[in-house]
Amino acid sequence: MPLVDTHVHLNFDTFAGDLDELAQAWRQAGVLALIHSCVDPAEFQAMRAIADRIPELYLSVGLHPLDMDKWADVTAAQIAELAASDSRVVAIGETGLDFFRASDEAVQREAFWHQLTVAHSQGLPVIVHCRAAAQATAAMIQEFQRTVGPVTGVMHCWAGSPEETQWFLDLGFYVSFSGIVTFKNAHQVKASAQLVPSDRLLVETDCPFLSPEPKRKERRNQPAFVYHVAAYLAQLRQVEFESLAQATTRNAATLFNLPELFPLPSDSPSSNSNLLRVPTPAGC
């Protein structure tokens, strides 16, 4: 039952007191690896210190579109330097566009383009935040691919429509679903989750935010709860849980170049396993 939580923020203060216990919980839940997403290059050293304690923790580095007050002429070079400084960096981001109540769209576009350039030059994927900006985000990626060169990545914590989802699939991107997909009224997200091919699907918690059902009342999300996202997606897509877990783990290993996650154990589920059987690991 391998899983990868492809988007966490473990440097938040809410995790400071019990991170070792949380690590034990996610290991018991089958989480083999986590991608620790950076929202500001200034936090990268603290992220590195956490990764020194947790061998299965990988890093990204970038500047979030809601932090454009921190964007400067030197930021892209700083991101590139930090990415090259540590072999645990497997992505650039989180970056992207967030036009919800935004007044700095031009700066966001500039920062996103520069971070796409860093990703392209270093052969890394991008972790893309996209809110109220799907058309603009897709257009920028398409233009970058046409004029500069290849770039791939993941639409993280995806909540777009099926039509928007297809735009990013056509661009070669992966799509990652968080606890939002388990919410009762998230009809658009559920429809998109059914559309994504099994070889482009990822799961995440975006912890400490967005605790999934049945843990939604717990205000602090944690990596072990990615199990519930994967379990819900298996039910929604009408596939075996083990099949979805292995597919999303394989996809994470492919996108983030984590060959150490494979080969998977040879004791894969037998062909007569009960469809939709989802065992609950201890602690979840």
From TrEMBL:
Keywords: Hydrolase, Metal-binding. One of its GO terms (biological process) is D-amino acid catabolic process. Binds 2 divalent metal cations per subunit. One of its GO terms (molecular function) is D-tyrosyl-tRNA(Tyr) deacylase activity. The keyword Hydrolase applies. InterPro entries: Deacylase_DTD3 (IPR033665), DNase_TatD-rel_CS (IPR018228), Metal_Hydrolase (IPR032466), TatD-like (IPR001130), TatD/YcfH-like (IPR015991). The keyword Metal-binding applies. It catalyses: a D-aminoacyl-tRNA + H2O = a tRNA + a D-alpha-amino acid + H(+); D-tyrosyl-tRNA(Tyr) + H2O = D-tyrosine + tRNA(Tyr). It comes from the Bacteria. Its cofactor is a divalent metal cation. Transmembrane segments: none annotated. A divalent metal cation 1 binds at residues 7, 9, 94, 206. Its EC number is 3.1.1.96. A divalent metal cation 2 binds at residues 94, 129, 156. One of its GO terms (cellular component) is cytosol. Belongs to the metallo-dependent hydrolases superfamily. TatD-type hydrolase family. DTD3 subfamily. Catalyzes the hydrolysis of D-tyrosyl-tRNA(Tyr). This is D-aminoacyl-tRNA deacylase.
